[in-house]
């Protein structure tokens, strides 16, 4: 995996590093989370104490090697990171680069806001609390392809899916190695490497300019791609809620419209992250969804796990992220539900999934948005 997975409670130390403190990567042939470490060239003693919290990077058959990846930079408490900023993901540990920021509305149900600028509950949703939207920054990023295999068990961040103009009206396409990252999950660093992130789109979208900070600047291809596909890449709302130390974050995206049997079918994708904020090991066993359509239908979906998995959330591996899709016969609706988790003693508890809106857009499916690489999911 990338250099390290740093729990948020430890990030304050990173901000104290000067630009002379290098970020080294511990390559572990077994890439075991509880035995890997990161190391600052001047702070070896600190890293030795913290090593149990950090993930190793790529596999190397010859064993363990320390390699310098770059230099830590101070995290931004105000403002946004610019296009070309290199970073480590604070939870999943992969290396990446910022393509562009997305200002979004965060609806945090763990906060009790005032009444203005609220969204009401969908019919039948749990609770009656209204939540105020707070401005927050997320980033569209490229993931280093060397790290994708090592995060696949904890995160499906390897691709963003789209509907494409195709003879098969069901076709979904995926651009590998794209993710959406919250501002607080960015651990910035810099590197003298002219291609520090391995991804087929890196050199198409960015060029190296050592006189700039960050040292990578956008090419015209990136600007054109962003302008063309803005409405399909954009995230506008993020929903978050915590139940018994398990935080669920949901990001919905409108994908477009398909015609089926002389009627329109509206498609959305949604990305969900579950994060264990406590010390107790738990395992996700079941999901329970309610899907309300503007046409008046209410669908209930129950099943084992999510995307064929029953992930374990622990102190060492606290988060799991996945994405899925939903379609409606009407242009808008709502979704909400719960996950059932199991404790080590065999008892169960339910974790709420915050209600979120499914809102369509007037534009139809985009044209010529795939710069490559892409893969058909059907």
Automatic annotation (TrEMBL):
The keyword Mitochondrion applies. Residues 112-131 are annotated as: Disordered. Residues 240-365 form the ApaG domain. Keywords: DNA damage, DNA repair, Mitochondrion, Nucleus, Phosphoprotein, Transit peptide. One of its GO terms (molecular function) is DNA binding. The keyword Membrane does not apply. InterPro entries: ApaG_domain, ApaG_sf, Hemimethylated_DNA-bd_dom, Hemimethylated_DNA-bd_sf. GO terms for cellular component: mitochondrial nucleoid; nucleus. It is found in: Mitochondrion matrix; Nucleus. Its main location: mitochondrion. GO terms for biological process: DNA repair; error-free translesion synthesis. Interacts with PCNA and POLD2. Interacts with SSBP1. Interacts with PRIMPOL; leading to enhance DNA polymerase activity of PRIMPOL. Interacts with POLH. Interacts with POLD1; leading to stimulate DNA polymerase activity of POLD1. Involved in DNA damage tolerance by regulating translesion synthesis (TLS) of templates carrying DNA damage lesions such as 8oxoG and abasic sites. May act by stimulating activity of DNA polymerases involved in TLS, such as PRIMPOL and polymerase delta (POLD1). This is Polymerase delta-interacting protein 2. The lineage of its organism: Eukaryota, Metazoa, Chordata, Craniata, Vertebrata.
